[in-house]
Amino acid sequence: MGDASRSSSRGKVHTINSIGMGRLLGKNAIVTGAAGGIGLETCILFAKEGANVLMADISEKALDKASSKLKELVPSAHRVEIKVCDVSKEEAVKAMVEHIDSWGGVDIIFNNAGIMHADDDDAINTPEKIWDLTQAINVKGVWFGCKHAVLSLRKFNKAKGSIINTASVVALVGSATPQLAYTASKGAVLALTRELAIVHAREGFRFNALCPAPLNTPLLQDWLGDDKPKRLRREIHFPSGRFGEAIEQANAVLFLASDESSFINGQDFVVDGGMTKAYVTPE
Ligand code: NAD
Predict the structure, then answer these.
(1) Whole-complex ipTM
(2) Residues 6+ apart with CB under 8 A from 138
(3) pLDDT (tens digit, 9 = 90+) per residue, 4-58?
(4) Are 136 and 190 in contact (CB under 8 A)?
(5) Which residues are catalytic?
């Protein structure tokens, strides 16, 4: 595919780089947790596809590194900026969305920031402060992102918008290796996403939840470390015999963000290599 130029709805001429096809041409997108595994891969894909991308994360250092990588990989990226934001703080989320309002309002938000704390455990052993921290980031952070995205979409009279919230397969299947606060938080993400999808459907705003299976990203891999039995206990459940890659999630997010998924709304969008459909897996 060669390079090409087109006019966006806002009249600017964008160059479509030789990898992307301009599937998000001229759209303004926010990605939270943008410096992490899934977030960065998604920002790279969004930028390749012609979106203006606001990369948001709690860590400024990690954001600087991630945005440099993006600009190196996608030199034709139209507009890429960073915003330090703790998604558990409403004022910070409001400021993040107001930043993109100065570009003409949000079209896409990927509420993806999340934590899985090392001290998260079962009903007996999970400390209350870890429960509260997990809900504050994983649930309240998603709520604030949805709330301020809707306000921005309305402010700019947008006829459509795509909101994608990161949940997890643990919201769908029980795990004997518990992280109860994390599991509860991801179940809440599924429920709130589904309800918002119905509430805002007539406004043209779509809400879908991404349900990734365990991945090769720092969030899980740092936690597994060199512990082979701990790793095997999880790998065995994959029909494919492997963890997923962040780019495989990012490709699904791109689809949900784009108009190609215009009739997909309120879904638990599972990207798991068949894990949640498996009983006995191949040896
Ligand atoms: P990651 O740890 O690589 O990235 C998470 C990012 O979120 C980090 O850059 C971190 O700095 C940022 N973050 C943490 N707290 C924040 C806050 N309060 N405000 C803003 N940013 C904050 O993890 P990842 O694997 O890319 O995970 C992304 C999402 O996918 C998370 O919601 C996670 O729960 C979910 N998920 C991951 C897996 C997996 O196996 N990696 C599986 C299922 C779901």
Answers:
(1) 0.99
(2) 114, 115, 182, 185, 186, 188, 189
(3) 333 333 334 344 444 568 999 999 999 999 999 999 999 999 999 999 999 999 9
(4) no
(5) 182
Round to whole Å and give the CA distance between 53 and 177: 36
Within 6 A (CB) of ligand 1 lie 32-33, 35-39, 57-59, 62, 85-88, 112-116, 137, 166, 168, 212, 214-215, 217-220
- And the tokens for 231? 């790793």
Paired tokens of 131: 């429960």
pLDDT tens sequence across 213-236: 999 877 678 878 889 888 888 889
HSE (CB half, 13 Å, CA atoms) of 197?
A: 21
Atom of ligand 1 nearest to the CA of 215: 40
Q: How many residues does the chain have?
A: 283
80: nearest Cα among 68, 88, 91: 68
CA atoms of 209 and 102, how far apart (whole Å): 27
**Residue 247 in this model has a pLDDT that exceeds 50:** yes
Under 8 Å between Cβ of 146 and 196:
yes
Strand residues in 23-99 grouped as ranges (E): 28-32, 52-57, 80-84
